Amino acid sequence: LYARARQVIAGGVSSDARRLPGTPLYVDRAQGSRLWDADGNAYIDYVLGQGPAILGHSPDVLADAVAAQMRRGVTYSAQHLTEIEVAERIRSMVPCAELIRFNSVGSEAAHAALRLARGHTGRDKVIKFEGHYHGWFDPVLFSVHPPLDAAGPADRPVAVPGSGGQLPGQAADLVLTRWNDLDALTDTVARHRGEIAAVVMEPVLCNSGAITPDDAYLSAVRRICDDEGILLIFDEVITGFRVAPGGAQERLGITPDIGVFGKAMAGGMQVSALAGKAAVMETIASGKVSHAGTFNSHPVAMAGARAVLEVLDEKRDDIYPEMERRGRRLMDGFAAIASRLGVPMLVQGTGHLFQTYLTGRPDVRDYREFAATDRATMARLHGLLLEEGINMVPRGLWFLSAAHTDDDIDATLAAFENALAKLS
Ligand code: PMP
Asked: Which segments cross the bilayer (predicted)?
């Protein structure tokens, strides 16, 4: 299949994120906590499409809602009841969500959030943090890291040493600084005082390790933004509706001015949302900042969102604690297995999602520490786990769903022990 795909699909894969050494996994079907490859092999899946399948793959509630809406009839670029109902549900679940707008994918909504912040404040610069990912759109939303390795994409902007984090060329309005480091932020804000529209972050850093920031840091960021007239944007494309019904802002107790949502909010259908304080969102409502998209609020995807959010909201007392408990069983089990086998390993996260690191460090607090861990060996572990019927995100990230059972956890722990034993 890979050879055939390469004849017609550039690189044989649909995203750079899926470019790994060796032959990619070609998925035939996915149900609940499982997926099956084209040869019929089954895997317990902790990738969940990079996070969305929070109720597991293709749950009946989603399949039924989507099929019913398709049969009922669909048109685009028009207003409809489902859109209002989904917005009402989000407002009732998410602390910052006074007004909402919809897009199709996370990159779009993140882009819309920055455009809104610039339009609302009349300022151009945005503070972004090392290792935080806000979608793949350029110029300003490209995945901006210090170089991970020499073989990284050639178009990746790189902070110039001594520039104070200012990026050259296409991303000139983007100011890059270190996360979870109050001195770095204070210094950056002081150097660009009066010019910064927004600070954007993943409130739990998921794209470079599963890192919850220090409490004191997040409340200080909120205070600095208030004092300086800067909008705080939480990119909750991964954390939204996952680490709590109201996302990281509910879990960590800090409310941003704008939240960006995607992935889990429709359980696997393509919907994203921009949700924020009314005074900020009114800049869109008044037409001062444009927001468009033919497929925004697509009725089929919105019917999926309505069905999935209803389940997440109404069964919140069951789904979230259970997902966390099963995730923590894996986290504790992996750490115990690693210590028994004498493999240095750190397991860190919230349970609903977590990261395994091959490191003897007691914790990992930001992107630089993440980048210094042994990710090449982690990618090898990914391959060994696949042979054992377990699929994790190759960099060592694990997503739980409401469909994972305690039997899945037991089977995964046994498989993990086998894979880890083969690693050394
Ligand atoms: N923000 C974050 C935090 C993400 O993790 C992602 C995707 N991994 C995006 C934005 C972009 O979302 P999408 O891939 O749906 O465009």
From this structure: none
Say whether 43 is catalytic.
Answer: no
Q: Is 235 a catalytic residue?
A: yes
344-367 average pLDDT score: 96
From 173, 181, 235, 257, active-site residue: 235
- The 8 Å CB, 24+ separation contacts for 393-396 are 393/46, 393/47, 393/50, 394/20, 395/355, 396/355, 396/356, 396/357, 396/358
CA angle 303, 265, 241 (to 5 degrees): 140
Q: Cα–Cα distance between 157 and 373 in angstroms, integer?
A: 22
Cα separation, 231 vs 101, in Å, equals 17
Mean pLDDT across the stretch 299-321? 98
Strand ranges inside 249-360, DSSP E: 258-261, 272-276, 346-349, 353-357
Residue type, 326: R
Q: Rounded to two decimals, what is the model's pTM?
A: 0.94
What tokens does 53 get? 């399948």
Is 288 part of the annotated catalytic residue set?
no
**CB of 259 shorter than 6 A to ligand 1:** no
Do you find a cis peptide bond into 139, omega within 30 degrees of 0?
Answer: yes
The pLDDT of residue 166 is 42
Q: What is the chain's alpha carbon radius of gyration, rounded to the nearest angstrom?
A: 21
Neighbouring CB atoms inside 10 A of 318's CB total 10
What is the rounded (10 degree) CA torsion for 80, 84, 85, 87?
A: 140
**Total number of residues shown for the chain:** 424
3-class SS at 371? helix
74-314 belongs to which CATH class?
alpha beta
Q: Atom 9 (ligand 1): residue with closest C-alpha?
A: 135
Model confidence band, residue 355 (pLDDT cutoffs 50, 70, 90): very high
Q: What percent of the chain has pLDDT over 90?
A: 79
Q: What kind of fold does domain 2-58+316-423 have according to CATH?
A: Aspartate Aminotransferase, domain 1 (3.90.1150)
Any ligand 1 atom below 6 A from CB of 165: no
Q: How is the chain split into domains, by residue range? A: 2-58+316-423, 74-314
Atom of ligand 1 lying closest to residue 50 CA: 8
